[in-house]
Amino acid sequence: MVYTRKNVSTLTSAERRRFVTAMLEVKRRGEYDEFVRRHIDYYVSDGEGGLRAAHMAPSFLPWHRCFLLDLENALRRVDPGVSVPYWDWTRDRTPASAPWTKDLLGGDGRRSDRQVMTGPFAYAQGQWTIKEGVTDGAFLMREFGRPRKPIQLPTLASLNAALSDPVYDTAPFDSTTRRGFRNRLEGWGHGVGNATWENHNRVHRWVGGHMLGGASVNDPVFWLHHAFVDLQWSRWQMLHRGAPYLPERPPGPGDSQHRRIVARREKMPPWGVTPESMEDHSLIYRYA
User: What pTM was estimated for this model as a whole?
Assistant: First the structure.
């Protein structure tokens, strides 16, 4: 049965409570930290050798679609009526808006150590201890807007600029690609300072704290953010009907991306599914 992912700002109090309860139970069971570890394992940059599947590559979108589905399946094993809501950061742009309420994700971290002090995921509540990360801190951290180097959330104009690009991705299929929807949405910009970050990447920078690196999954907002990113892929497909995932074929020997990216019909780790098989989600879920 096809289920629905809703805008987080439209969730009822009961829907918020069920989502939080399911998240906390997945964490209690030990499953959640496995998701954190997986994301850390696949957090590979252009400068590293080997295959890039999750970031700085064409498979950024299908990889995270699979990742979202895995988390969603874990949540639905707890409560079959739960799905991952999406956070529209082009509209809900302040720390007072969804999803930062006390009954959902809680708010910003405190100034002294960036520790989140409100909401069900605050360390003081005793149900959300950070176990997998790049630091030894046990508490969830955020730093909205990065006050020391202020940054704003992406604008609707920036998102629309990505959606208007009619090509999914272009060579060299990494973070330096200047054309193509994938990299413009993923947000590896060009310039200095905050101009380096666009769309998806800029949201990670704005939230700060744990959202800054490979351990970003420690912050539950990761999933709401990526559900909105996933929605943009769906919107792009509707705007550019028939435009496929690229590259269609794997780069050959001598190409800088040979064996470093996943072509449309190649298997994508760790699931062994192809990007082509992830292009249509209509039989699994839809967006409200």
Answer: 0.97
